[in-house]
Amino acid sequence: MISLPSMLSIVIPTLNAARDLERSLSAAFSAGALPIEVIIADGGSSDGTAQMALKHGARLIEAMPERGSQLAAGAQAATGEWLLFLHADTLLAPGWAEAAAAFAADGGNHRRAAVFRFALDDDGQPARRMERLVAWRTRVLGLPYGDQGLLIGRNFYTDLGAFKSLPLMEDVDMIRRIGRRRLALLDVAAITSAERFRRGGYLLRPLRNLFCLGLFFLGVPAGRIARIYE
Question: Which numeric CATH code is attached to 8-198?
């Protein structure tokens, strides 16, 4: 029998995310016996994000409109012994709560973190190729991105120094501090909206992401990379 954590805090940063947030919240609140709280760290939305969060019973806090600061603020407001950081356009597939509970219950994972398997809500072959590419990057390079979620114990997260106030690459920065050997892949999909790939291209957008990632590893300030990215 799995020993459930006393509380799992799900932190979701938002900025005008009402279109995608409802399905993400519905999946998050389908945790069954796993006790959860959901914290929406909003960066100043002008659409119905706040109303959507409150409608579903999430806790709403205000934060600076940059993802690193929002994630850090959400974690600071959280009460759970385990934290799950999740993007607003990411839908956790059925079985996520059981997988998260099993990971958290294993005492050997208190100094480790976990991510979910990347998937896109697109039936086309370009989406399948992108999923295979991300699977390779996660498995071989140990470099998942934030759209795969991040499950981590609060004490480990605090010891790592929390999320930095970065406008971009906050997920890569955190993953580098965790380290490849302390990262696990949960066999449950985190299904992310493919809209950005349909809009930016299944070839051009990954190439732009790779270029920005290279700049980050070369030490270019995240603020400058964010201007290039946008």
Answer: 3.90.550.10
DSSP-assigned beta bridge partners for residue 48 = none
With a CB cutoff of 8 Å and minimum separation 6, the contacts of 144 are 115, 118, 134, 137, 138, 150, 171, 175, 183, 185
- b/e per residue 145-154 (b: at least 16 CB within 10 A): bbbbbbbbbb
Residue 66, token pair as written in the block: 């940059």
Q: Give the pLDDT of residue 62.
A: 95
Question: Which H helix or E strand runs over 156?
Answer: helix 154-159
d(CA 17, CA 87): 10
Q: Mind listing the pLDDT tens digit for each residue in 98-144?
A: 999 999 999 999 999 999 999 999 999 999 999 999 999 999 999 99
Per the structure block, which two tokens stand in for 122? 């697109």
3-class SS at 117?
A: strand
pLDDT at 31 over 90: no
Helices (H) and strands (E) in the chain, counts: 10, 8
DSSP string, 29-91: T--TTS-EEEEEEES---SSHHHHHHHTT-EEEE--SSHHHHHHHHHHH---SEEEE--TTEE
Helix (H) or strand (E) holding 107: none
Are 56 and 22 in contact, with CB atoms under 8 Å apart?
yes
